[in-house]
Amino acid sequence: MPSWIGAVILPLSGLLLSLPAGADVKARSCGEVRQAYSAKGFSLVDIPYQEIAGEHLRICPQEYTCCTTEMEDKLSQQSKLEFENLVEETSHFVRTTFVSRHKKFDEFFRELLENAEKSLNDMFVRTYGMLYMQNSEVFQDLFTELKRYYTGGNVNLEEMLNDFWARLLERMFQLINPQYHFSEDYLECVSKYTDQLKPFGDVPRKLKIQVTRAFIAARTFVQGLTVGREVANRVSKVSPTPGCIRALMKMLYCPYCRGLPSVRPCNNYCLNVMKGCLANQADLDTEWNLFIDAMLLVAERLEGPFNIESVMDPIDVKISEAIMNMQENSMQVSAKRIVWRTMQHSVTDIKEKLKLSKKVWSALPYTICKDESVTAGTSNEEECWNGHSKARYLPEIMNDGLTNQINNPEVDVDITRPDTFIRQQIMALRVMTNKLKNAYNGNDVNFQDTSDESSGSGSGSGCMDDVCPTEFEFVTTEAPAVDPDRREVDSSAAQLGHSLLSASLVSIVLVLQRLCR
């Protein structure tokens, strides 16, 4: 005979002896509880048909009950599982926002880079022919480094762009002086004076400012989306404390033990339980909101002054202008425009979703407790479970955060021991927010200590104390006759030479020759 049968007989026999003759006595049935318990997927083997004495209960009120010790243990674990799922489901929106928007932004940005590189290559092949193709690695390296920077590589954008223009000047210096042979040290010396003499005009300076700001903003923004995604994923996986599990069991399943499986918890009762169980998550809110604000600021930069399209879409024309003093080519690649319009829409969409994710962690208790499957709602305050019986819940609602749970009537919370894991997420958000603020101002937090370009110092110039080598070897061979097969090359060379050998550029070349002798 199961143990619970004896527990039913003894109290019932005592009750019968104390009642007057002829009284109609019926023990309260556990039929409704058995049905609800079975619907949860549990076996009915250990559940009584009628109420039994409840002295064995450790969490629920020790009154007549439909719960055995085994049932209380199983329902306690069930309440823990349901709570973990509730938090994951409730935070699903914010998690999917960061996952999907990160993927979209990253795809669009990479496609924009690919299209810009392809456009430059196509335009320069048409314009300069073999001359470009023989020197195309200079431009390929530029895009390789831009991609490496965007994906988190340790690239100093300013130094990389300075190096690009220096290499380009070396190649052009050789092209317009084909009668000479220059040593490597001499060419490095030539590149040293790029900033002072400005052979490419003001294009390098303007492009450096635009590229640096736009790429810092884009890289930091996509890093912010990554950090937001990781923090949201980690925080949504809760590990309730023993005190929280007891409170969850009492709120969600003690009605079963009292024979009231259809009675849901009072709304305010649920709020106090959730505020106690999610106290540490609520403390994340302040830093999370600052992080979201910083993300929104950088998003505005990407839409406005740090607009990546204004840099990448005409980069081929800008570099060509620096080389040949050309006006902007009317030929544009429509695919790039389409990609950017889609990307602009993506940034706007991200901004709207980010705004909705503010205060998400402190709002978790309210979001969970307004779920009709969890509580009786605010309109049914008299017919709800208050932790002891079906009646109004009287205690006041606690404020948000760990320190405010010191007097929480439902959850035993140790306010002296903040959750280390949550504190780590707070620190990750704080670091990312600092990077975003720097990016908003056009600064790369990893390279704030770079030397001022006006200082005149250059890395790898090959010159010591402004004394440059004099290896300047004259080659006196005559120019070769025109070969029909070389017509495209010579035509491109003539076009390039005509554009470059203007009076101002010739004077620059002469100055460079004097300086580097």
Keywords:
517 residues; 2 strands; 60% helix; 22 helices; signal; Glypican_CS
Arithmetic mean pLDDT: 79
- Poorly predicted runs: 5-25, 325-336, 447-507
Task: Give the biggest sheet.
Answer: 2 strands, antiparallel
Q: Could you give the count of β-strands?
A: 2
The structural class is mainly alpha
Fraction in beta strands? under 5%
Count of individual helical segments? 22
Percentage of residues in helical conformation: 55-70%
Q: For the CA atoms, what is the radius of gyration?
A: 37 Å
Overall body shape? rod-shaped
Pattern of helices and strands: HHHHHHHEHHHHHHHHHHHHHEHH
Order of strands across the main sheet: 1-2
Give the termini distance in whole angstroms: 110 Å
Quick structural gist:
The protein has 22 helices and 2 strands. The chain is an all-alpha fold and about 525 residues long. The chain is rod-shaped, with a radius of gyration of 37 Å.
Structure commentary:
There is one protein chain. This protein has 517 residues and is mainly alpha-helical. It has 22 helices and two strands. The chain has helices at residues 3-18, 31-39, 69-90, 92-128, 130-133, 136-150, 157-175, 184-192, 194-197, 203-235, 242-252, 254-257, 267-277, 279-283, 285-303, 308-312, 315-324, 334-356, 364-369, 420-440, 487-500, 503-515; strands at residues 180-182, 472-474. The chain has a two-stranded antiparallel ribbon. It is rod-shaped, with a radius of gyration of 37 Å. The N and C termini lie far apart (110 Å).
